[in-house]
Fold each of these.
Amino acid sequence: MTPKQEKLTALLKSGCVIPVLTIERLADAVPLARALVAGGVRVLEVTLRTLVALPAAKAIMADVPEAVVGIGTILNEDDLARAEDIGAQFGISPGATPDLLRAAAASALPCAPGIATASELMLALAHGFGPVKFFPAEQSGGIKALRALAGPFPDMRFCPTGGIGEANAATWLAEPNVIAVGGSWLCPAADIRSGNWSGITAMCERTMKSLKPA
Ligand code: 3PG
């Protein structure tokens, strides 16, 4: 493993459950991150899905030092450069285009491209990536699909996202090739909109508890 891959692996493992954040209002960024951290969820993926995503990520980095901030929904080289510029700790993409893989391989930012098929995984491997995001996890065949990929790719480690929630996070994490799971269930849009920070903390706490063996 390269140092970049080692860093990414360590970050994902330490996060274990990684909220996929869509932040619409800049003012929500810091209280949202504090609510997640208070619930034991520290490694955060701020997605580039809104206009305030980058300032939101910067605000979290400045005001919530316990949080480890990565940038998600990286679709192209520009997104990658913007994530690197603001000092993100890691990058995540839903896909694995040849252009993005080339740019991410040359960048200092540890990145997890997204794959849903063996061919996409082979492309990511050829560019030196791993761990990767398995996306959309439930919709692409769920745990059965992931187990099938473990046959030809026994050393690959995955962070599945898409359709994961409080009820199945532990089941996914029990798979030997899964090092973290991600998703939006930890930070529902309605809770962010209404400022239900205690609800978000409670969801994080319940999820973290569900991961502990009884
Ligand atoms: C992602 O980018 O990983 C997904 O949007 C998360 O999917 P979810 O909303 O089903 O958790």
Note: The longest helix spans residues 197-211.
Amino acid sequence: MQNTKFLDTPIEYLKGIGPVKGELLKKELGIFNFRDFLYHFPYRYIDKTRFHAISDLHENSGQVLLKGTLRRLETIGEGRKKRMVGRFRDDSGAIDLVWFSGLRWLEKVLQVGSEYVVYGKVYSFQEKKTISHPEMELATQAGTAERPSFDPVYPSTEKLNNKGLDVKNRRKLVRSLLEGLPEGAAPENLSPRLLQALQLMPHREALEQIHFPKDQEALEAARLRLKFEELFFLQLRLLQLKTHNQERIKGYVFEQIGNFFHTFFEEHLPFELTEAQKNVLKEIRRDLKSGIQMNRLLQGDVGSGKTIVAVMTMLMAIDNGYQACMMAPTEILAQQHYSGVKDYLEPLGLEVRFLSGSVSGKKRKTILEDLGAGKIHILIGTHALIEEPVKFHQLGLAITDEQHRFGVEQRAKLWAKGKPFPPHILVMTATPIPRTLAMTLYGDLDVSVINTLPPGRKPIQTLHKTENHRLQVFGFIRQEIQLGRQVYVVYPLIEESEKLDLLNLEAGYHALSREFPPPQYQISVVHGKMKPADKDYEMQRFVEGKTQIMVATTVIEVGVNVPNASVMVIENAERFGLSQLHQLRGRVGRGAEQSYCLLMTGFKLSEEGRERIRTMVQTNDGFEIAEADLRLRGPGNMEGTQQSGILQFRIADLVHDGKLLEKVRNIARKVLDEDPLLEKDENQPLKTYLDSHFKSWKGWSKIS
Ligand code: ADP
Ligand code: MG
């Protein structure tokens, strides 16, 4: 039993480490104890079973492993240019090895005439193939029978290397730690049944094989096993949390589908709902009558028709005698929701009001009174709805639009508004999150998806244009305006280069004004540095069709709806992230007309920038774009996932392990269905592991 504590031993006590290196490991790699050291897995391996032929090497060969003879060694150059060059030859040809530091030591240890195994990255120097600072090992010592043929390589830093914790040393230390690992120090944490059913490698063996695989097959098996357990325990915890929440948090029961809903559905609904919309409404309906508080995330691409789902959900609340509120992250968007919802619901005799920070004085006082007295059915607004000491008569449902700008704190405040139960919560977002991320990030939420657009939409045509197409683009804008359409021109604005960005926008505005002069043409300008009142005024002019062109920064990104706008020009498109580009594009294509998105960029694009533009041109599907974003930027950097410690894995990787995650989640669910509290004998390893590893887990606050 004591042995389970073995891995908690501070790292400086590992033989060969000591206080100085120990301190460095903590600082540089966050390795504090034996466990951290052991579970810091190699990120690649040197395959000592296969060697490259020198004659096959070229500039793009990357990391290669060579076997040959060191023929010559000479020191050339002076001062900073001083370097040592070794001539290395195999049966097929020769290559130069170069060192710029540690020359004296190298001179001592390298043996001219001996056979070496060399590992390093090939590059071209003065047309000669070269490897600088290769790893060198005498062939007699490398890859022999008693040593494995894969050498692990660990993430490291310059400082660690300089302090003698280079890769070779690291291997030695890991090996001796593994060899000295007492029985029971790294106990099996999966049940025999799971191991058996899934044919997984036992934990201890996986630990050994991940560091020193005996062959490719063993390496794969070890990887799979460790990925599995990493994903499995997280999902197990998330699912437990979800069940736990559902038991604890009772919610209002919306027993009936009542008059308002029926009347609206039968007499006022301006179109037929899509299948996807109907399904989501069914899911919501099930939640609302279950007696458990709803916590549902509704994902749907821009234009997929989330608003009407929100409206009909609010009717379910009102039919049962409750009030509903709806919040949006910006004043403009909240206003739009307000006027939209009012148009839908006032004909039914419902009282819909607007509240934001800008509503003050007597107006505000009346709203608050009416709200408290239950005269208002629906309150729509900004965060002010919950920041304020706003008191509802009986708040049964809260809807937030564009969730990724809605923090955890705000959700908590919302909860406090309900009595005796917290209101049901529907969170809507048009930033689709790939399933794998949603499962982890929102593991405690139920997720609904609207995955089809309403019928009759023409897909937006997206084109990539460079500076030399500028006149052509102007011509196109003119043509569309003549057809009675409106045009957005969007500029990037980021904090780091704010001044320059604003200048850019201004220059763009002037160029457009010259090209499209008044009185024939009118142009609105909106950017984040303007006073809210001015912004709203300009915005309003565009919404009402008084201006044909809207020059703006990304303030228009979220939710704004001008169906008559058919062209979205995005300047410096390479500077936007994928999800942002997609959001912006979603501002057009809302009416029946063919719409266009023009991505303007310079000629020079980074590889990633080019890939983003290519993705945008190729697809209109938000989920596909989210997947691409995930691939390009990694899970931690996507919109809505930033700073989520929960997405940091040791070995699993949400980009590539989506399928595995799906499978793991199902298995975790099955285990919990059979044994919710993990009380069965066979599940004791699971319980022990969860209890010891997730006790003080900080992930909770981030996801609930
Ligand atoms: P989003 O999901 O981006 O919030 P909206 O709710 O604003 O999308 O809907 C976009 C447009 O599609 C609106 O003009 C809306 O009236 C229309 N719409 C929504 N559902 C349907 C439907 N089932 N059939 C036809 N049009 C629809
Ligand atoms: Mg919307």
Note: Residues 271-274, 277, 300, 302-308, 430, 454, 561, 590 surround adenosine-5'-diphosphate (ligand 1) (CB under 6 Å).
